[in-house]
Amino acid sequence: MTDLTVDFGNALDVEATPGVSEGILERLDERVADVHDTISTGMAEGEFGYASLNLPERTDPAAIEDAVADIDADHVLTVGIGGSALGAVTVSAALGLADRHHTLDNVDPEATRRLLDSLPLDRTAVNVVSRSGTTAETLANFLVVREALDEAGVDWTERTVVTTGEGGPLRAAAEEHGLPALDVPEGVPGRFSALSAVGLVPAAILGGDVEGVVAGGVAGREALLDGGSLFDYPGYAYGAVAYALEQRGATVNAMLPYAESLEPFAEWFAQLWAESLGKDGLGQTPARALGATDQHSQLQLYRGGRHDKLVTLVRPRERADVEIPATAVEGMRYLGDATLGELLDAEFEATEASLAAADQPNVRVEFPRVDGPGIGRLLFDVEAACVLAGELMGVETFTQPAVEWGKRAARGLLGGGEFAEADAVAEKTTRVVGGK
Amino acid sequence: MTDLTVDFGNALDVEATPGVSEGILERLDERVADVHDTISTGMAEGEFGYASLNLPERTDPAAIEDAVADIDADHVLTVGIGGSALGAVTVSAALGLADRHHTLDNVDPEATRRLLDSLPLDRTAVNVVSRSGTTAETLANFLVVREALDEAGVDWTERTVVTTGEGGPLRAAAEEHGLPALDVPEGVPGRFSALSAVGLVPAAILGGDVEGVVAGGVAGREALLDGGSLFDYPGYAYGAVAYALEQRGATVNAMLPYAESLEPFAEWFAQLWAESLGKDGLGQTPARALGATDQHSQLQLYRGGRHDKLVTLVRPRERADVEIPATAVEGMRYLGDATLGELLDAEFEATEASLAAADQPNVRVEFPRVDGPGIGRLLFDVEAACVLAGELMGVETFTQPAVEWGKRAARGLLGGGEFAEADAVAEKTTRVVGGK
């Protein structure tokens, strides 16, 4: 039911440049076996980062549903940023809840005002997510949201749930006001936390299939533990092929799902891949895309541009479909014999073949359908792929040291303390054209 | 009022690797002068592609507004894909109309059904855009939309406007049913058509500042024609610096606007840059991003990853702002002295400085505010930058030959004729892991 497959035929060097051979992969699989020992031992011992791959076992859907059972809402507004938002958005979209799950994951004043003006605040749950409870963007937005609810005469303490770490201001606020409070799991970086309360609270409030998502993750975890070879476990197949292609020049990974409900998955992937692997002068640049739309935007580049890309094509094997009405228009009658889904799948296969015909490496990822088990399995296997790739690359997959500099600079600029980084901002080298 | 500036101080080789020196740019400016002759002559003679840069002069906002004056609607549903949608979405978002402008730019059956179920069809205008009138996705969606309006008892012929080329099925449908019909301008590739009816019809229907958008383009065109040097005209400065950095290894261009209303601009840019420059084995891969959100997703990669990226930071100089309410939370009091806009701008400057501190090349683009003149100027100058870069690279900027293969394959797969490309799909090399 939750079977996910990875097909890397179009990444073999008989088809693609750069490409990998069976011989390359067989030698690589010896390293994969060693890395699998590291990963499975890390999982068994709950080590930092590796613990992420235990989430399907640790997460209790009923406990999440119980915690939010008293919140009666038609909409959820998630206040969080990065890993505190993208997993939840991805899960909600896959469960068909995108129209009722909204996010404040930026500090744009105009967009914030517009969103708050458009929501029925007395029917909206506020879901605040920050491990530390001190993320500047999230705190600022939460303060603005609370004020908006106050001004609308809505008691925010009756409609707010927090997901946070053991201590910090959000945990304190939850205790002070009696808010439901869930845990950001220990040992799990934010971008690996989709299969915990961090990713599942909005779906739980909106009645989505939280159990199914976790079950999909459980199936992925079992496949990982049963596997240990890139030739057996699709998560490892994807991670190993992506790594081997990056070594050979594929420094971009274009993620191209063929389903609108997977558009946030491409954004989630972009964070996972960039923050985990983009370090020490290495890492593929994730390019977020969407099929079939981006055939009319990015395909020219993917086919005719540099041979520096892996294109990852993702689709469900089944969709709810819509018939295309018959047409008498000359040359277009064939459309009337098809459905939108058949058209979309024909475009998927045509794009894949078109990349192969241009020797551009690509990989196909398929799973049964976009639903709870489907997205749970997809997220888990791609996380496992990322952990494997990081081990093969020799980077620290679970940290993000390069983002701290900017946080200190921004804080200093706003008067939140003395930081040398803020002084560097004033010393910017300028070379301006225009504005005369 | 419509002044746009490009600051490439952080792309100079004293700051960044790769980087450019004043000497490199002075030599390059001699080539820019030659290319400027080609561009300005092409504009004067209305040559294919170069004619795009005349759109601000050719486009008559009043004529567009007159054509749609009889359509009384609260929402617009644009049916189009690629260059037939992205420009309009970008303009609408910049004019604050994003919530009322919807797009069918994919053939996902589930998303299409959901969108049609959610719209008030009797208050929605249908805006169908295709130069040829034969784009498969657009025709299929238009047939589905017509049926939905029929089933809702709404007369689609009273609410539909088409923008298309001289002939073709859409033009014929417009004549048969007496629909308002606007022209896709001759000599202008779709991705360069935002400053024509293709980009402006939805804003015209929804009462947006169409005149302002065109005026912004006019200002850009005047600056281009007055300029001719990368040291004078910001559009050329951006195109020349991007080209020189690509030559030196910056094969990714991460577009990072700091305004939610510019998020579609990053998508529009991704098409413009990818389809125009991604050919003959060259071209930067555009990475669409959004500040400040992607600081928590992509910044680790941009700072700590490969030195293969130009990061383009874009912001308005002014925004409507929102105060952050005071907070007593320990260590967070500084937020209560700021606004969301100040926080966003501090993050912009902190990110820029953080990239510079890591020797990662970046360019700052600023303009007065996100409104009609602002977006018109931004779109024009970036188009000019793209044309300049294409000339410097020696590619055919205005064609997209690599996308035809897949179109033939998809058509063949759906029974729309005999195409050798469709046979290639059946011959795919498969190498599947998983699914046992």
Could you walk me through the main structural features you see in this protein, from its secondary elements to its overall organization?
Two copies of one chain form a homodimer. With 436 residues, chain A is of the alpha/beta class. The first copy, chain A, has two domains: 5-42 and 214-393, Rossmann fold (3-Layer(aba) Sandwich), CATH 3.40.50; 54-211, Glucose-6-phosphate isomerase like protein, domain 1 (Rossmann fold, 3-Layer(aba) Sandwich). Chain A has 16 helices and eleven strands. Chain A has a five-stranded mixed β-sheet with strand order 1-10-9-7-8, sandwiched between helices. A five-stranded parallel β-sheet of chain A has the order 3-2-4-5-6, sandwiched between helices. In chain A, helix 7 links the parallel strand 5 (160-164) and strand 6. In chain A, helix 4 (86-94) packs across helix 8 (197-205). The longest helix of chain A has 23 residues, at 22-44. The N and C termini of chain A lie far apart (64 Å). In chain A, 65% of the residues are buried. The mean pLDDT of chain A is 96. The interface between A and B is large, with 149 and 150 residues.
Could you state the order of secondary-structure elements of chain A as H and E? Answer: EHHHEHEHEHEHEHHHEHEHEHEHHHE
Number of helical elements of chain A: 16
CATH architecture of the largest domain in chain A: 3-Layer(aba) Sandwich
CATH superfamily of the largest domain in chain A: Glucose-6-phosphate isomerase like protein, domain 1
In short:
Chain A has helices at residues 22-44, 55-58, 61-67, 86-94, 109-118, 136-151, 169-177, 197-205, 210-226, 234-247, 263-277, 299-304, 340-357, 372-393, 404-413, 420-426; strands at residues 5-7, 75-79, 101-104, 124-130, 160-164, 181-183, 252-257, 285-288, 309-316, 362-367, 432-433.
